[in-house]
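Practice problem: predict the structure.
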Amino acid sequence: MSKEKKTTMKIVNEHCAGIDVGSRSHYVAIGQTDKDVKEFGVYAQDLTDLCNWLIENMISTVALESTGNYWQNLYVELINSGIEVVLTSGRFTKSMNRKKTDVKDCQWIQKLHSLGLLPSSFLPDELTERLRTLTRHRANQIAQKADASNKMQKFLKLLNFRLDVVVRDVTGLTGLKIIEDICSGILDPNELAKNRHYNCRKSEDEIAKALVSNEREDYIFGLQQEFERHQFYLKQIDQCDQMIAQLLQDINQHSSYGNPKTKPYKRDNKNSIKGIDLNRAAYQYFGGVDLYQIPGVSHSTILSVMSEIGPKGFMKFCTAKHFASWLRLAPNNKISGGKTLSNRIPKGSNRLKIALRNAANAVGNLKESDLGRFFNKMAFKKGRQAAITATARKIAVILWNMVTKKVQYQPRTTYIFLDEKRKQLALIRKKIARFGLDPNELGIFSQERDRKNWELKCINNQ
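Answer:
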């Protein structure tokens, strides 16, 4: 009879444990026998007993799955106890052809970890994690505020208030004042139209025509409720902005870096963070690297980079290709027999990937920039969606090189924004005027309205 052959594998982590994380209890395995498995609760004292039991058994490293939010308190307790923790994704711990129980799961995790087969997931440092918590909470509040705004527009239409026709933004200065008067009981169209802001394009008479309602009480009540909810979230966002500004100020208080160049061509919108110069804060946060110089990168992109990965997070990726692959912006090549079977972009996305794709989409609307030309070339070859992904990957590579190598963005050709062009044209006009020449006769105009005024003046002189 032939002897059975056994395949052995080298033990990488000798003193290790595997933990099956649960909502009500955690199963811990320090070996492959039943006596090596023990169940612990989820209370603070239970987590302390778990760590003490691991230390008593001379466990130096632990592996656990990132199951929901149940692992976070356990992870912090293990780190504070001096135990190395490998947090891995559930897709790396799946096993075929075996029964699934909590005991067998923790033993299987311990076995894989002992053989060194479980990769560790990315986790930011503590300061970045605090900033991430506030930033994600702020994003959820903005989404709730937008939902309240949509509900207000719905009730306005049901009341026959066509405010959306005469005002570009219902939650702007004019719109909010009109809605506030409606909620307070003022339904006279002429009185409501007096809230018109001087920048509004429509006249008071036209606004009054759009504010004749059917005065349904149930719709007015619903509008009042949504208006209060909208105002509540505005206050919540302001408080969150103050917390983020204070945290960034505490992080950068010992920074020796100065101020970056101002960028008036990159304007903030109504959802921009208030109470802090994010351009200056990011410049100090990343050690004197000005990420705002990258075309398409806005305040929301910078805030996502600061909160989702941080400067120390870039150092955990040895190359820019690893960073792009972690973001799932690089193709997942499947090759068999020397033939490429598939090279699709992996499914799934995180907040940083979404922010980079939004920046890439903004690049597609720019002109005369290096990234814009690359975007147009890829869009011509494979379509706009593929161009957005390719440009997002290129921005990710630029970010990694700038932060890790401490270099500034260096485009092949400098992109001149519209405001900068107008300033340069104004200087040219002044220089020409010194020679006693009229720049208007040469066709040099700083803005389009200057050209129209000159043409109108010529017509009147004739």
